[in-house]
Every structure is written in structure tokens, then in C-alpha cells.
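Risk mitigation, structural track. In case the binding assays with magnesium ion fail to produce interpretable data, a predicted complex structure has been prepared as a fallback.
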Amino acid sequence: MERTYLMVKPDGVQRGLVGEIITRIEKKGFKISALKMLQISREMAEKHYGEHVGKPFFESLVGFITSGPVVAMVVEGKDVVKAAREMMGATDPLKAAPGTIRGTMGIDIGRNVIHGSDSKESAAREIALFFDEKELCDYKREIDRWIYE
Ligand code: DAT
Ligand code: MG
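Fallback model:
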């Protein structure tokens, strides 16, 4: 089954939004394969956001993402990369559709609460950056037959 990398950013942790975000993922039916809290180093942040090196917001982005603990997770399910991006909403929370995580929980683009991989290739790269293979739990859920037909 497809996997994605999702991360509650430091603002989401500080604001106590971890539970609500995980609840949305669980309610949707997606399966959490790995979950941990960590504080990202500058080195990891530069790797994670490598595609944004040189952009005007890069320094503030790295400063922000390393400013406090994040909650990192691997989430599994049908078409989960795209579906999770839709659940998150647009990058700018003021432009994100109402009802999405960013649309419901944020205002500024630099405080947009959650990260999610933008493609299957990014997902594989980001999962490998934040998790060891042995941290991923491969387990069956009885409830899956009530989620998938
Ligand atoms: P996303 O997080 O939706 O994948 P992205 O990969 O384009 O968006 O950018 C990574 C993060 O960088 C984003 O979550 C917030 C920040 N960011 C993006 N564009 C920005 C901008 N124009 N000004 C300030 N911060 C920005
Ligand atoms: Mg991105």
C-alpha cells in the first residue's frame, strides 16, 4: 500500500493540535505505520527542504522547522500521498479550502501547521530521511475490510 510522510510542524505541537490532526488521519481510515516526536537539526532541515535552497523564505523556513519539536509520521493507504495533500489544503492557510487542516487551523504561510509529501518520490525520500526501516510497523487491521471494499 502507498505511504506518505506527514509531520505536525512546531506551531502545531505548540498549539496542541497534534491530537486533532492524528484524529483526522485515523478517522479518514488511513493507517499510521510510524510515529515519533523529534527536534529537527539544521542539517536535517536543509536536506528535507533541499528543493527550497536559495529561495527568499528558506532561512526563516529552516529557523521555524528547527524551533521546537515536531511529530513525524508515516501514513499508509490507497492514494494517500494525494489524499493527504488534499486533507492538508493549500500551502497558504488563508487560501486553503475551509475544512482542510490548514484552512481550519492556520493563517500565515510560515505557520501552516503540517507538512505532507508532494509525490511518491518525495514520500520515499522523506520517510528514509526521518525513519529507520525498523521503525516502520507492518501490521494488519481487522477494520480494513470496513474501510476498503
Ligand atoms: P508545501 O508545504 O505545501 O509542500 P512548499 O513545499 O512549496 O509547500 O513550501 C514548503 C514550506 O515553505 C511551506 O509549507 C511554507 C513555506 N513557504 C512556501 N512558500 C512560501 C512563501 N512564498 N513565503 C513564505 N514561506 C513559504
Ligand atoms: Mg512541499
